[in-house]
């Protein structure tokens, strides 16, 4: 059973995992040094614990204690309780859904481990926006994909904003980070995967046609960065170049929307 | 040809259209009172003018003058030029893509006018998040939908953030706002439209099956708010209740992702 600890001073050192949650640069440094991540909101905190992550502590206003009493009963981590105004003094903003938790990061799986258990994966190249990373996880999870592979420069899926947009799917959908960006397309091919590069290139094949073709058992959908799309190297190295046909004069779908459409079209057949 | 005016004082009254761009409540009031909206970034400013909106003025750092010289040649509105630091003093934040424009809002089209020219529309109910509104416009435009209809409580598509996420598609994709929320499903039906309610209800039909069926000539896809989804009234009143089948244990797609998938699956057949 978690111990309830009333705290009044926003500078209390026991709250140091929760400081300045809107300062992205500071948070990146702090969270990687300490090996922690922050879950925000009752539903997300609940999912973090249910998916087996170890809590270091909680921080919440008194009114959230009841809503979370069942999950707090399963942990020994301290629950720091403060007024909402005082919490804002720690975090630097008004925490809309009241409850926060600081949790231990687990060791990352390797790319090979993640691929070994999967048949449909999204591969994200250099998505630097936490909202987009979260949206990719949420769509992949909802539409029956098994895992996400991240290029070295992709943003952290366990950053607070990404977790929130992903509705916690980052806690249980397996993911890994590519070490060798250059060699990755060959690694995929060597493991028997068919790679699909999502691109606006004129010679790319229509997603409808590709989805109706025989792609083999293991399919990797590669989506590129917000600005420039997939790199020339990954685009050229993929087995198939695929496009979502657009209305005349439109640049492109947002990468999160394109990922949702591709996952829908290419997902393993669903029953029911 | 636009006149170039150097300005140094961030409190100069000629800059009053650009103040405090991050203060959502203030901006809502100010923009509706003055009948203006703000375009941000070279590409979006360009599209606002190309789509025929009248500029009141521009505000930019010197280095953006060249990039926009062709469009500035087409307008008589003044171009206020300041250092990037001084612009930040006006707007309250660092304007990443340098250029801003203040433009006149045009009279809204009526729902009947918008529907008269369309065969595929997205109907958004109570989407209060500007990012989601922008994403819905961008996906609808890219995937061949003809228009967007907004419920009375939807956020403003001409709000800066929505415009940016929509990549300017709000400038040319027709849209209208429903006056009578309660009567709207009947209005749609009376005009010969088939309405599809996107819902998680257990008795809803699978999107794949619905997309393969004969829906008639005019199809309206109704999507609901971020928190609660579509209202019971609109859900019950629709001709067909439709669901995107989800992997076990997943709540739902984000509304922007669900809209992209629905537009992809239900769009008018594309050539090429």
From TrEMBL, chains A, B:
Membrane-spanning residues: none
Keywords: Methyltransferase, Transferase
MRM3-like substrate binding domain ranges (all copies): 32-91
Gene Ontology molecular function: RNA binding; RNA methyltransferase activity
Positions of the tRNA/rRNA methyltransferase SpoU type domain: 121-263
One of the GO biological process terms: RNA processing
The keyword RNA-binding is annotated on this UniProt entry: no
Taxonomic superkingdom: Bacteria
Alphabetical list of Pfam families matching this protein: MRM3-like_sub_bind, SpoU_methylase
Name used for this protein in its record: RNA methyltransferase
Phylogenetic placement of the source organism: Bacteria, Bacillati, Actinomycetota, Actinomycetes, Propionibacteriales
